[in-house]
Write a structure and sequence with these properties.
Strand content: 15-25%
Subcellular location: Cytoplasm
GO biological process, one term: L-histidine catabolic process to glutamate and formate
Largest sheet: 8 strands, mixed
Bound molecules: N-(iminomethyl)-L-glutamic acid, fe (iii) ion
Pathway: Amino-acid degradation; L-histidine degradation into L-glutamate; N-formimidoyl-L-glutamate from L-histidine: step 3/3
Number of domains: 2
Function: Catalyzes the hydrolytic cleavage of the carbon-nitrogen bond in imidazolone-5-propanoate to yield N-formimidoyl-L-glutamate. It is the third step in the universal histidine degradation pathway.
Structural class: alpha/beta
Shape: globular
EC number: 3.5.2.7
Helix content: 25-40%
CATH class of the largest domain: Alpha Beta
CATH architecture of the largest domain: Alpha-Beta Barrel
Number of strands: 16
Length: about 400
C-alpha cells in the first residue's frame, strides 16, 4: 500500500529523533506546500510537493490532496489512566462547591472510589469503555497513548486492567503503551501498612507483569499521604532492577522531592510537577528526565499551573499530556491541553506542538519510531481542517482534526 499526501499548506514535520530541550522546542521544521510519501506504513520521502511529484509516478499511489490544510505527526498522549470502572461526577460536583481533591481523598473518596468500581467491572465492560475512549482520543488526533493501571490495587484487578490494555492494543488502531501504577493509592486492605503493600507489589505483582510482558513502565503516586519519597524509591529501584522503565507522579499537590527522586532513579519522565522545586528541576535537566506537564489537571483542580517557562528556560524537555482519568481530569482533549499550556503556562504554540509530538514520543520511549514526520518513521499523520497549526488552540475546546493515518492507513 503506497500513499501520497500532497499540497499541504504547512507540513509541520517536528523533525527529530530525540527529545527537544530549551530553544530547540520552538523548532517545528515546517515545509510549505509539502508532501509525504508512505510505503508499507513507513515514511519514505518528505519534501516540497513539486519536488516529490517529479520523482514518482503519481498513479501508483493512493493520493490525498491536503491543499489548504496543515499536516502534522499524530499526537501522542503520554500520560493517561483511561481504563477504569464507574465515574466520579459527584466528587467533581463537591469540588465545584469548594471541597478539595485532597479533602475528598482523606474522607475515603477519590481513587479508592474508582478502585471499587473497577474491581466490580468485568473485562468485557472495561474493553467496551476503553474502545469508546480510544475512539474519542482518535478524533483529537491521538495515534499513540500511554495507559496506566492503578484502579485495582490488588493482584487480580491490576492484572485485569493491564490485560484490557493489551487487548485494546490488539483491536484498536491506536497504539497503547502500558504502565503499571499499582502504587497509585494504599488499598483499604493495607491501610497504614504502606511498606507491606510496596513489598507485595515487588515480590508478587512485578515478576508476573514482567513474565507476561504486560507493562513497559512502572509509575508511582509520590505524594503527601500517599507514597513517601522513601517508599517510592524502594519500588522504583526494584522495578528498575527488573528491567522496567520508570515514571513518577511527582510534586503534584505538595513539594515533596519527587522531581529530585525522578532524577536520582533516572526515570524517563516525572509528571505533574506543579510544586517541583528549583533544585529538583535542575537535577532533572542534568539527568535528561522529561517533564510531562498536565495543564488540564491543574485547570480542573483549580491549582496553579506547572512552571513550564522556567523548566524550558532551564534546559528541560517538556511533554504535554491529558492525564485523562475519572477524578482529577476527565478529558481526552489534547487541543484543550495545548490551549491551556499556551494561555496559562507561557509556552509558545510551537513548544506546545513539540510537547505533544516528538517530546511525548520520548516520554514513552519511542522517539526513534514516532513523533515526527521523518523518513523511516511510522506514518502516523494527521490532516487538519485548516491551513495552519495556529488553528489548534484558537478553535477552543473542539477538535479540528479531519483525517488520521496510522501506520499509513486512513483510520479516521
Ligand atoms: O494523575 N494523581 C494521581 N493520579 C491521577 C488522579 C487519579 C484519580 O483521581 O483517579 C492524576 O491526577
Ligand atoms: Fe496521572
Amino acid at each position: 500500500m503506497k500513499i501520497l499526501i500532497k499540497n499541504a499548506s504547512e507540513l509541520v514535520t517536528c523533525s527529530g529523533t530525540s527529545p527537544k530541550k530549551g530553544e530547540d522546542m520552538k523548532k517545528l521544521n515546517i515545509i510549505e506546500n509539502g508532501a509525504v510519501l508512505v510505503e508499507e506504513g513507513i515514511i519514505k520521502k518528505v519534501g516540497k510537493t513539486e519536488e516529490i511529484l517529479k520523482e514518482i509516478n503519481e498513479s501508483e499511489y493512493e493520493v490525498y490532496d491536503a491543499k489548504g490544510k496543515a499536516v502534522l505527526p499524530g499526537f501522542i498522549d503520554s500520560h493517561t489512566h483511561f481504563v477504569f470502572g464507574g465515574y466520579r461526577a459527584d466528587e467533581y460536583y463537591l469540588r465545584l462547591k469548594g471541597a478539595t481533591y485532597m479533602e475528598i481523598m482523606e474522607k475515603g473518596g477519590g481513587i479508592i472510589n474508582s478502585v471499587e468500581a473497577t474491581r466490580r467491572a468485568s473485562k468485557d465492560e472495561l474493553i467496551e469503555l476503553g474502545k469508546k475512549r480510544l475512539d474519542s482520543m482518535l478524533s483529537f488526533g491521538v495515534t499513540t497513548v500511554e495507559g496506566k493501571s492503578g484502579y485495582g490495587l490488588d493482584f487480580d484487578t491490576e492484572i485485569k486492567q493491564l490485560e484490557v490494555y493489551k487487548e485494546l492494543n490488539d483491536i484498536h488502531p491506536i497504539d497503547i503503551i502500558p504502565t503499571f501504577l499499582g502504587a497509585h493509592s494504599i488499598p483499604r486492605e493495607y491501610r497504614c501498612r504502606n511498606i507491606e503493600y510496596i513489598d507485595f507489589i515487588i515480590e508478587k505483582v512485578l515478576p508476573y507483569i514482567k513474565e507476561k510482558n504486560l507493562a513497559q513502565f512502572v509509575d508511582v503516586f509520590c505524594e503527601k499521604n500517599v507514597f513517601s519519597v522513601d517508599e517510592s524509591r524502594k519500588l522504583l529501584l526494584a522495578a528498575k532492577m527488573m528491567g522496567f522503565k520508570l515514571k513518577l507522579h511527582a510534586d503534584e499537590i505538595v513539594s515533596l522531592g519527587g522531581a529530585e527522586l525522578a532524577a536520582e532513579v533516572e526515570a524517563v519522565s516525572a509528571d505533574h510537577l506543579l510544586q517541583a522545586s528549583d533544585k529538583g528541576i535542575d537535577m532533572m535537566a542534568k539527568r535528561g528526565v522529561i517533564a510531562t506537564l498536565l495543564p488540564a489537571t491543574a485547570f480542573s483542580l483549580k491549582e496553579n499551573f506547572a512552571r513550564a517557562r522556567y523548566m524550558i528556560d532551564n534546559g528541560l524537555a517538556v511533554a504535554l499530556a491529558s492525564d485523562f482519568n475519572p477524578g482529577s481530569c476527565f478529558t481526552e482533549n489534547l487541543s484543550l491541553v495545548i490551549a491551556l499550556a499556551t494561555l496559562y503556562m507561557n509556552m509558545s504554540l510551537e513548544e506546545a506542538i513539540t510537547a505533544v509530538t516528538i517530546n511525548a514520543a520520548a516520554a514513552v520511549g519511542m522517539e526513534k519510531e514516532i513523533g515526527s514526520i521523518d523518513v523511516g518513521k511510522k506514518a502516523d499523520i494527521i490532516i487538519l481542517e485548516h491551513p495552519s497549526y495556529k488553528f489548534i488552540p484558537y478553535h477552543i475546546g473542539v477538535s479540528i482534526v479531519e483525517k488520521v493515518f496510522k501506520n499509513g492507513k486512513l483510520i479516521y
